[in-house]
Amino acid sequence: MEAYSVLSRDTGMRNSPYYHTAMTLFEPPAPLAERLRPRTLAEVVGQRHLLGPGKPLPRMLQSGRLSSLILWGPPGVGKTTLARLVAQEIDAHFIALSAVSAGIKDVREAVTEADRLRGRGRRTILFLDEIHRFNKAQQDALLPHVESGLLTLIGATTENPSFEVNPALRSRARTLVLEPLAEADIRVLLDKALSDPNGLVGVQAQPEALDLLARLAGGDARRALGTLEVAASLLETPQEAVTPEQVTEAFGRHLPAMDKGGEDFYNLISALHKSVRGSHPDAALYWLARLLEGGADALYVARRIVRMASEDIGLADPQALRLCIAARDTAEFLGQPEGDLALAQAVVYLALAPKSNSVYVAWNNALSAVQAGDSLPVPLHLRNAPTTLMRQQGYGRAYAYYFDDPQGSFEQHYFPEGQLLELYAPTGEGWEARMKERWRKLRAAHAEYEPEDS
């Protein structure tokens, strides 16, 4: 049967230097990243902290005591490749499942197969990609087989295992952290793609183009190789070389990686908050942009910004809270991207504003005092007295109304009987500095009438 090439339908693609690649409707070639997968651990680029001499993985393989593993790292850093190579190194049967589509039924089938092979003296490695997608019941189904040693589990995840993997399963596996590849490592892979027989045979690229791609890839080898493959397809003649412009076109618009409900998201929120608190408007704007470009809910971000105004600026600049509420309303009214500018305005204002967490500290002190103590009764003179019976019982009696009796107002006590707390202490920042002297005088006036045994 004649194979019809997909490339033959496009003149520009037909002139591509790798047009000869057998891209057919029936047997499309594997992506470049797949064709260039390392065949041995020695060929792996990067991850020297795990694979170098004397590092964890070589030691385990040399000892023959390979424990279950959780490989945690961003996309495109070699988690799947590493799992396959580990199985190859110890001549273990390799079963690969994706938690996106697999379920308990698939786990049971893997257990059955592993049990059959154990009878023949062969070990089984179960590779579970995206392990964080398994719910608690599905993860629990793995436990007895991992604990008995029937299955050696290698789970791969982009999410923090501390949050996404059950403690019981996590305690039975060693977590190895994979890092984004350095630009130099990405550059090595790109050079290999142009020289390896399984790569882009005959394709040339300007060094500046490869340097740019190594930088843009952000440590993701799969993205780098995929982009190079697309850039090569843009060439019209074999004599051309891939240029930085073609790399930029092939790369497209890059949206920062962010799991909206995962650790990355909350790390970005934390970085934004701490940059505001540290009075660094440039960094605050950068993290805000990362959040919004990554797809964060603008109104959620706005709520966090309002919180910053109360927690870190407080009474040093009371206008900050008003401005942040206005920014939230503007973001809701205009939507994105127009409303994002109001959030940027609020973030810069907060970063530049004087800082005070005095109310935040005072509120936490008050909560701690209430949570640690007994529920003491409200003094009679502070109680509400809406009925005659209550007034006869002494509710509200002898209460000194400040505007009728200022001195009497200071003489009366406002805490429960026998209790006296110091919760609020103003700072010398901004507007609060002007309040500090009045606070000092008020404290002195109240202290003059405090009981000596309090």
Question: Secondary-structure map with pairings?
Answer:
Blueprint: H1 11-14, H2 32-35, H3 48-51, H4 56-63, E1 68-72, H5 79-89, E2 93-98, H6 104-118, E3 124-129, H7 136-148, E4 152-157, H8 161-164, H9 167-170, E5 173-177, H10 183-195, E6 204-205, H11 207-216, H12 221-233, E7 241-242, H13 244-251, H14 263-277, H15 281-293, H16 298-313, H17 319-334, H18 340-352, H19 358-372, H20 388-392, H21 406-411, H22 430-447
Helix pairs in contact: 10-11, 10-12, 11-13, 12-13, 14-15, 14-16, 15-18, 16-17, 16-18, 17-18
Observed structural traits:
Helicase, Ruva Protein, domain 3; Rossmann fold; two-stranded parallel ribbon; Zinc Finger, Delta Prime, domain 3; alpha/beta; 4 domains; 454 residues; five-stranded parallel sheet
